[in-house]
Batch of 4 targets.
Target 1
Amino acid sequence: MSIMSNRALTLTLALVFLPGILSAQEIQIPSINFGVQEAQNPEEVMGVLQVLFILTILALAPSIMIMVTSFTRTVVVLGFLRQALGTQQMPPMQVLTALAIFLTFFIMSPTIDSINEQAIVPYQNGYISFSQALNNAETPLREFMFRQTREKDLSLFLGIMKQAKPENREEVPTRALIPAFMISELKTAFQIGFILFVPFLIIDMVVSSILLSMGMMMLPPIMISLPFKVMLFVLVDGWNLLVGSLLRGFVG
């Protein structure tokens, strides 16, 4: 009881003397106010809308990165590789995702440089308007997506939109280009995944046939084939070949 009484007395004294201490030291405590004020001119409204738009873009940045960059193909191919090797959780998906992100930045660096030179720097210097900066930033991304998009996939979305065949790339709407680019990337990733599976599947079939001929039906074939698959992947320098193929697929 004495301990509880001492703590209560200390707390009471602190509450009593704290305002005096703060006033004696002249400590200024800031206050934060949130409110809506009437705009004096249209420029203030446009400035607020631009800030809201930029915050929205930042919130959607992960989705935008997946939709309009090389991340989709890269992460799907790396996932296929882990499944083909049969190494269960090795390498971890966090490692593969991190590798896919850094490869995406490497692949997209020319496009990012173009956006910086054509849109961000001129807008910061006041040479172009915000809407013009958006148009300038969209152009390099569209060029990148056009290089990787199949005409068949693009025609699918244009046909659903009931839009006439465009005469040039400028007439293709971005809302049709983005999904066409994504399904093209998925098809390419699945094609690469099939090629990755073939040599490892052959090793699994050979090991299974040998174990069956030896009457060792109770021994899981994957326990025997896994070291051979890992050894084959290391001997051919698989990481170098795979990453090099992915990079050349976008750069070439």
Target 2
Amino acid sequence: MSDDNIKAVVKEKYGQAALQAATGRSSCCGPAAATACCADPITSNLYDATETSQVPEQAVRASLGCGNPTALAKLNPGETVLDLGSGGGIDVLLSAKRVGPAGKAYGLDMTDEMLALARENQRKAGIENVEFLKGEIENIPLPENSVDVIISNCVINLSADKDRVLREAFRVLKPGGRFAVSDVVVRGEVPGEIRRSVELWIGCVAGALEESEYHAKLVSAGFEAIDIEPTRIYKVEDARQFLAGEGIDLEATAPLVDGKFMSAFIRARKPALFLSGPDSRGEEQAAQQ
């Protein structure tokens, strides 16, 4: 599937999910018959009652993540936060409360339906230090060195060009800025056909990276202090209903899948001395003298 096709499928599925959430139904980005897509342990029980009480119900319904980056990321008053693939806005709204009136939370999404839902959720929540931007995570519409923290909730795995996403994240982060995202990660090798089916269950059009590959891509983008911490490890039993519907022999599949797919919290940092621009090398050398 080409990059453009992947983008079109993601846009369509998440647009449908936004419309479902807006009409009071829980979102599910997988096939209608695959009810396991919406069940534990992926998208449910990610936010506690204290968090869900702070945002409109539609924001909770529209959450299609596999983690809770706002709970795991360290956010400080006055900071600027960017959520890549912000969906219905739950993580943006929660982040805005944590950084306070002196801070700012941006949400970036390419889907018109999700942006409309997110802005309506912002209006209902009465939170002013939020701005939702239309755009793609491969081309972030913000200047370099403008963001303290980047969060994302299982969206980077959907991109067909993850290297570009990570380079863009690095570009817009301030020196010393933090990358703190939840994403689906693979640990070890999984046969292609089985991997595609499990990824469909986990993330609709998932293209999850192997753990060491994710680490290598972050290094290549310029990040340091990289840590990948599992938050939920999926077992074959979690996907039993879906995989059976796909015609996969569960007994034969179990040893190849158990414990290999996980939601993870991925931390990294842009070097504090990093300087960009045409004279950055000379300026950095001068700073070190």
Target 3
Amino acid sequence: MQYSPNRTKDYQFSIVVPVYNEEENMSALENRLSNFLSHSIYPACVIFVNDGSKDESGWYIREICSRHKDFFYLDFEQNAGLSAAIKAGIDYCFSDYVGYIDADLQTDPDDFNLLLKDIPDYAMVMGIRANRKDSLFKKIQSKIANGFRRMMTNDGVEDTGCPLKVIQTSYAKRVPFFNGMHRFLPALIQLQKGEVKQIAVRHYPRVAGQSKFSLWNRLLSPFLDCFAYRWMKKRYINYKVGENNL
């Protein structure tokens, strides 16, 4: 499906922020994102994607967007999941670069500038959560899942779950999307022969709201998704047109 260019074309960098039942974080999110936009390396905007929230997140998003000319939103009719929210943000982005950050603010929007310094030379620049502030149980789950994914995808990525990434939009729009895709973004960029760089970023404990991840979608489901990725990798079509007269 083709999407018509919109106001994001007036910016070089768009930040996609999936939101699902994060009303307690919305005020802090507004402050942190608006502060970052004021000193972003590139002219930047924010695209909130309200993933069918059942609390007052949608109301807060509209209020925030009414106060800031560089804030926009997409509103899902019903919950579709994190991968769908990221895909929607990319579909509606017409900036040169597109980024992604979680609404829980466990990563810092200011660290986007660390990634943006290198994005002209890489298809993707992504964070590695330094000194993670999660529980020991979450860390163990993540370590197991990351190790298995690296073995299955051979992507060489240390922390694919870090919710701070910047991608050249031309690459992002060619990513084949499916449920669970967000765990494989680096590998899916590499399928296009794109280079991925990893940079250490700050990490904080969640101070409001509830995590949307459980043992199933943090550990068991990604195991199954790895096999889907392996199947797709063997059948992925990759081409470049040298010349045409269209």
Target 4
Amino acid sequence: MKSILPVVAVLLFGVVHMSFAQADLQLGARPQGLGGAYVAVANDANAVYWNAAGLGQIDRGEATVMHWALPELNQIVVDYGALVYPVGRGAVGVSWTRQAATLEEGLQNTQSTLSVNTFMLSYGLPLASFVSGGMSLTRTTLDSPVGNGAGLGLEFGLMLRPLETDHWTIGLTAKNIAANLKNESLTPYYIGGTAYRFGTTDSTHNFLVAVDLNTRQDIEGKEGTTVKYAAGLEYRLSTGDYGFAIRGGTGSKNTSFGFGITYHFLSVDYAFVKMKDDLFGNSHKFGVSFFFDR
């Protein structure tokens, strides 16, 4: 009890001021294994969250789910799921994210739950041989003892292929555009990144390098512009229906490593995240993805 009280107090204050809704969650076990450098990769169901333009690369259906475990703070839960499917020239995607914290208080151990749910509807498609575009509509709801609320927002993304191949990509996304929650505006933020792939997506050996820059205004108690970085590496070995990947990455606030195992229509991913601050400690992200034909 004594360990959770100060944490939940922080979270309660954060929810009231929409910090949960504005958090840079870096969803997905594979993206987190890359240190959170994913805006120029985004070639799977995680594109719904990271960059809707990446849906223009999708040629089959995929569903993914993720659970974020914080061993030191098991009263905090983050769950995420996304589904994408080719439609027309591009693909449509939907996702749901739940962030929740539970507090037991008083002699009767009464439970209070704070939760933020975000729903996304996205569509992305190729605009030309070297560029894809995408857009997402977001709906965020807040449920807490201090009040409930809801709001809408927009996100936009671009994916550029300067060589008109999958080797080199540049990704750009704008989040929290015209977004609000409980009649308060959420701070827009922007992510730009680049990725280079040695080998093709169907090669036996595949090596990926990715770097992102994330910029926001007036966050984390700082005035002006805050810039965060993320960088990651992935090596993937594919033989027939089997695949294995190992990943590592670092960012302004964390260092991570992870791996993935793929068999035919199923992929299991894991990422361990070591935070550079002590508020949430280390964490584990587990992801499972399913693939199905168009």
